[in-house]
Amino acid sequence: MGPLAIDMYIPGFPAISRTLHTTSSAIQLTLTAFLAGVVVGQIVIGPVSDSLGRRGLLIGGCAGFALVALACAFAPGIGTLIAARFLLGFAGAAGMVLARAVITDRFHGPEVPRHFALLSQIMSVAPVAAPVIGGAILSVSSWRVVFGALCLAGILLLVAVLVKVPESLPPERRQRGGLGGTFDAMGHLTRNRPFMGCALVLGSASAALFSYISGSSFVFERIHGTSPAVYSLIFAVNAIGMLLAGALFSRLSLRVSVNTLLTAAVAVCLAGTLTQVLLTMALGDRFAASWICLCSSCCGGSACSCRPP
Fold it and tell me: Concatenated DSSP letters for 85-145?
């Protein structure tokens, strides 16, 4: 749900700006609000699921996602859209955090990185499909229909959870610490250097990725003059690269040290970003150079996300 809600409406950023008579920075704030909702949602939903189990919260998250996506579709102004996007992020966080929690419920030891890499590949399907679907919708209709499609996706996911997803955390394994216990555990984790190193790498890679996500539609559509449909294809190609990078990480993790792979992924991400900066300073903003450098940075960032802290 999270990747769909992030990537489907991105090709429509310029159109939303025109329709709601607001600035590009205000439209980018809708993405920031969504990510803030994801952060708060994960902090709340994760600990609560440790006490109450995963399935019920996942059902509530899917239902809430569908309802708030419908609210986004009918938002009359930018303030309403920003608020609705925050709630959409909170609801979408259920699927994002609980999918990872289910992995730790069911797998242990060396199996965990492999299944996190598999999860990363599955989640990378959404960035491939979402902008293409969003671009196709925008070519025949308005950005509001994009949120209608997200509402439908939430309903379909709700049905799938009801029919196919069992509870992965039995009552005897549940914890009673609640949010207080979670924050206490977070305090201990901040003193764990290996954990903090991985968390900082993942956070930095995510910051770079979302800077690209929030600004690239304006760069390609306004500076380079591409249509929303063409931009969605550019975005999809980069997402395919991320999917392949995650698949490669998954295979290599069985034979190569995970920290070695993580170092290589950071190097690829850094090289793509620095090359983009240097080429822009020397030659100006070139279409092909921007696309290639952004793709390499996204691939490196995707591989970074496969290493669980």
Answer: HHHHHHHHHHHHHHHHHHHHHH--TTHHHHHHHHHHHHHHHHHHHHHHHHHHHHHHS-HHH
